[in-house]
Amino acid sequence: VIIIVEGLNDDYIHTYHQFVLMPFLHALQEKSLYWSRCLTVGERSFAALPSITGSLPYGKEGFTLIDTFPFHYSLFSVLKQNNYFTSYFYTQGSWFDKKDKYLKYNHVDLICDKYKFNPKYHKIIVGNDHFFWGYNDKDLFNQSFEVIDTSKEKKRFDVYYTGTMHPPFAISDSSFYEKKFKQLTQIMKNDSDKIYLEQNKQFILTLIFTDDALAQFFEKYKQYPQYKNTLFIITGDHPMSEMPVANCFKRYHVPLFIYSENLKTTKKLTNLVSHLDIYSTLLGFLKKYGVKTPEYSTALGDNLFTNTQRKFVFMRGDRSMELYSEGYYLSDNQLYIIKN
């Protein structure tokens, strides 16, 4: 199971302006293999899915937006060849950034986007034209359980892409979360932190909501027999652009967890890695359990556990490029040294 959390900055899973706003993820990092220096390679969401599932390049505007795909492998295609049932659960329309084209090319068995949800879930409608945006993260996970409940496949590869921590920042149970937010700010001693949270209240509420959604997802998943034999990978697609970041390099700083009840040890890893390293790492691990992997590789990444010097090319939201190489970072014609 891979969960890509929209807008998740690594800062949010720690103490943030006096408080732990995402207590579930904060606790999960202590029970996981956690990479504290993981980077997404795109400033916007177009980069996340192909980077994480395929370790793929960008083209001019992002891999999924290439007119004709070059031949490539992905976790979807490799695991499907190994008799895994492959699925993609998304709160919005899979046409966004042409993700559906990428998923269909890789013969994903089930694409469950906003058009496939049970009508009982509450639609998010925005704007004067009443545009149907999608669903919140709690509904995303609950809808997926309806699918899993009817599934007979013993081997599954499920990818989730959340959406609540993204405009229009719509949550359900708003009065409950407003109250929760008020309780936080009332006990704050630092006025500047209180002002900061108040100014960013709309965004902060989605952090708290999504963390609850993830906690409920894991609580429900524990009831399934396959839970004890499931590997969970959690990361952010990119830090939320509406919230301030410490510097330009932090635009790419996301957390990365690998969690399973079968982990023999937990560990915080501090080597610099990226989304591009997930594909090769996961296939290398699964190969030991009989998964047949391709003879050739189309991956740009390395293994998450190696401490080799990495080189990254980042793609900005405007599709301009930034470079990182062996401790140096080039952004807007400024050269920086990156330390811890």
Summary of the model, kept short:
With 340 residues, the protein is α/β, with parallel strands linked by helices.
Beta-strand portion reads 15-25%
First-last Cα distance? 30 Å
- Low-pLDDT runs: none
H/E element order: EEEHEHHEHEEEHEHHHEEEEHEEEE
What number is the mean pLDDT? 96
Tally of contiguous helical segments: 9
Structural class: alpha/beta
Overall geometry comes to globular
Mind explaining what this structure looks like?
The chain is α/β, with parallel strands linked by helices. The chain contains nine helices and 17 strands. It has helices at 23-30, 48-54, 75-81, 99-105, 137-149, 174-186, 191-199, 201-221, 278-287; strands at residues 2-5, 15-16, 19-20, 33-39, 85-90, 110-112, 124-126, 131-134, 156-161, 232-236, 253-259, 267-269, 273-274, 311-315, 321-325, 328-331, 334-337. The strands form four sheets. Strands 1, 4, 5, 6, 9, 10, 11, 12 and 13 form a nine-stranded mixed β-sheet that branches. Strands 14-15-16-17 form a four-stranded antiparallel β-sheet, with no helix packed on it. Strands 2-3 form a two-stranded antiparallel ribbon. A hairpin with a 5-residue loop joins strand 14 (311-315) and strand 15. The two termini are 30 Å apart. The model has no long low-confidence stretch (mean pLDDT 96).
